[in-house]
Design a protein that fits this description.
The chain is an alpha/beta fold. Helix content is 34%, strand content 28%. It has a single domain, classed as Rossmann fold, CATH 3.40.50. The longest helix is centred in the last third of the chain and has 16 residues. Bound molecules: adenosine-5'-triphosphate (ATP) and magnesium ion. The site of magnesium ion has 3 residues, from helix 1.
């Protein structure tokens, strides 16, 4: 399988601290990778670099064979909007907008028509068990529902790659497992997923575990042939 993302000797320095110390990592199409490690080990920083949200101090990032350093901001924004879906630990839904409008927003931003955006959003709402909640505001639904709304929003542009940072961080075990089942289904359907988690139980449900310690990858485990 072709690599979606390739990181070569990535280093990240903030002030005088080196928080990533030479990361080599390749994510192939169709993979479901979890990134585990202690708090402060560099997981989020790594995910932001993979998501083209942040630039490394040293090293090279390739997205679908394109060298990121050579791209203009416009091209970067295009890749981020069209090809990558982000799910953050805190969902960042817009409180003033309905659930439906939150989900539709990235589709409209990327130029999809109102009609097609609505159609896709309604399909996703149904698939994620949010039917009937579309006209509520984020503060009028539960935490689990917010998380699923955030996942719907991440999926609306049919990204090739989902990057999720502790997507179940503030969910109970039932909703956590629901989110995991959704991720597995999306992955079976061809979407590549990289998920940061500190729960080993969840990591074990993915296809590869990457362990980060103090800005270095210390261990990798493939859980099934891919
Ligand atoms: N903008 C920043 N300025 C200064 N230090 C930062 C910044 N962002 C991250 N760091 C530091 O870099 C290290 C790695 O942070 P990072 O957020 O990547 O850790 P993490 O593995 O995601 O932790 P957690 O599990 O708590 O989310 C930490 O020591 C953190 O304090
Ligand atoms: Mg983090």
């Amino acid at each position: 399988m072709e690599a979606i993302i390739r990181l070569k000797n990535i280093k990240k320095r903030i002030a005088s601290e080196e928080i990533l110390k030479g990361i080599d990592l390749e994510i192939s199409e169709g993979e479901f990778v979890s990134i585990v490690g202690a708090s402060g080990s560099g997981k989020s920083s790594l995910l932001y670099i993979m998501g083209l949200l942040d630039k490394p101090s040293e090293g090279e990032v390739f997205f679908e064979r394109k060298k990121i350093i050579n791209l203009q901001d416009k091209e970067l924004a295009y890749l981020r909007n069209r090809k990558i879906g982000f799910v953050f630990q805190f969902h960042y839904l817009v409180q003033e907008l309905s659930v439906l409008d939150n989900i539709i927003l990235p589709a409209l931003k990327s130029g999809l028509s109102q009609t097609e955006s609505r159609k896709r959003a309604l399909e996703l709402l149904e698939r994620l068990g949010l039917k009937g909640k579309e006209n509520r505001k984020p503060y009028q639904i539960s935490g689990g529902e917010m998380q699923r709304a955030a996942i719907a929003r991440a999926l609306i542009n049919k990204p090739k790659l989902i990057l999720a940072d502790e997507p179940t961080g503030n969910l109970d075990s039932t909703n956590t497992q629901k989110v995991m089942e959704i991720f597995k289904e999306i992955n079976e359907n061809g979407t590549t997923i990289v998920m940061v988690t500190h729960e080993l139980d969840l990591a074990k449900q993915t296809k590869r575990i990457v362990e980060v310690r103090d800005g270095v990858i210390v261990k990798q485990e493939f859980l099934q042939p891919s």
